[in-house]
Amino acid sequence: MSRIGPALAAAREQGRTALAPFLTIGYPEPAALPGLVAALVEGGADMLELGVPFSDPLADGATIQRANFVALQHGVTMSACLEAVRALRARGLEVPVLLMGYYNPILAYGPEVFATDAAAAGVDGLIVVDLPPEEASTLQEGCRARGLDLVYLLAPTSTAERVGLVARQASGFIYCVSVAGVTGARSSLPPELPAFVEGVRWQTTLPLAVGFGISRREHVEAVGRIADIAVVGSALIDVIEASPAREREARVKAYVEVLSGRRGAAGGRDAG
Fold first, then answer.
1. Which of 103, 85, 102 is nearest to 94 (CA)?
2. Global pTM?
3. What is the mean predicted confidence (pLDDT) over 208-231?
4. Which of 50, 125, 172, 189 has the most beta carbons within 10 angstroms of its beta carbon?
């Protein structure tokens, strides 16, 4: 059993929306990851999504595309990502970790071997953006055999039949993409989001996450009224990009404290 279920249960018992910040491994440089992860956890992150750099991240907007490019320029590979997670666990990291990325690097690595090595490194789950459930059997079986959750994405355009297919195969939680578009901080969430999430909720008992566009505390609160997990990615990358190196960790912690409700909005940066 991965750490994801207990972490979500704890947030639910405390009446909180679980917060899942996203970082690209290797951005802004590989050595920055341990300090940024510590800042996220201290700020109130319930779990972490760590991005595996990829050369063609089609689901991502300009912000995360830049982060991918920088990480690749630093030579970050899939093996380096697994080693990064292993090192974080050795430092005492206890919150769940999901690797988020695209299928090509996993396919090149070998899906079954990758599942084995990911579990050994301390990964709890995978979010593979471009892997449809119809083509996921090899990785799905590898994950199940090693206690990893394989999280699928649904879009507002997903049909009821596709929602049902994902609900039957997913574990850990289901990731509901808030918009029919790419990642990126937005000023408001789409008005049709509640109906979309409710349609997914009707077909599953799994927790639901909402991502793409979340950047403010009020977004997290809005997500909490319809789902279980708020995912914040581009807005967090924006905070890192705008921060001098010596201030990165403090600013990241303050921003996540605002998102998590641990401090008022006046105490942190609104990256919307």
1. 85
2. 0.92
3. 92
4. 172
* Domain coordinates in residue numbering, the chain: 4-267
Q: How far apart are CA 263 and CA 150, in angstroms?
A: 33
Nearest to 125 by CA among 37, 52, 177: 52
Coil, helix or strand at residue 237: helix
Q: In the sheet that 174-177 helps form, which strands lie side by side, from edge to edge?
A: 149-151, 125-128, 97-101, 48-51, 18-24, 229-232, 208-211, 174-177, 153-154
- How far lies 118's CA from each of 1, 29, 48, 164, in Å? 14, 22, 15, 28
In the structure encoding, which two tokens stand for residue 78, read together?
């899939």
- Is 228 marked active-site? no
**If DSSP codes are grouped into helix, strand and coil, which group holds residue 57?**
coil
Catalytic-labelled residue, pool 13, 42, 46, 60 = 60
- Catalytic residue, from 46, 49, 124, 149: name it: 49
Alpha-carbon gap, residue 217 to 181, rounded angstroms: 22
Q: Could you report the per-residue pLDDT of 163-197, keeping only the tens digit for each?
A: 999 999 999 999 999 865 445 444 557 678 999 99
pLDDT, one tens digit per residue, over 224-269 is 999 999 999 899 999 999 999 999 999 999 999 999 988 765 443 3
Say whether 56 is catalytic.
Answer: no
